[in-house]
Structures are given as C-alpha cells and as structure tokens.
Amino acid sequence: MAHRESEKVVVAETGRGGGGTxxxxxxxxxxxxxxxxxxxxxxxxxxxxxxxIDADVKxxxxxxx
Length: 65
What we know:
By secondary structure, the protein is mainly α. Helix content is 34%, strand content 0%. The longest helix is centred in the middle third of the chain and has 22 residues, at 19-40.
C-alpha cells in the first residue's frame, strides 16, 4: 500500500479586526456631512436666512426697425 503524505497549513490570526479602517470611514463620513452642510445647508438650522435678495429687474425689448 502506498504511503500518502499530508500537509497541514496553519494560518495564525493576528487579532486585528480592522478597527482602523472603521474609524477612517466614520471620520470620512463626518467630513463629508460637514462639507455638504457648508455647501448647501446654511440657514437650515436657524430657520432664517441671513441673505436678503432684492432684485429690481427692468428688461427693455429690442426695437424693431
């Protein structure tokens, strides 16, 4: 009967669960929220806007000759 060799591969876990990646993702999401607030959300929390837009537009039609 032929003798078969078997080989065992043992992979040791280092215990690193990827916590650094999770923290980086959370910080990235928070920075994105702050950026979007500054771009689009000014005045949303206070209920009033500090900008006053007063436009007086007069358009003259071109003369036909």
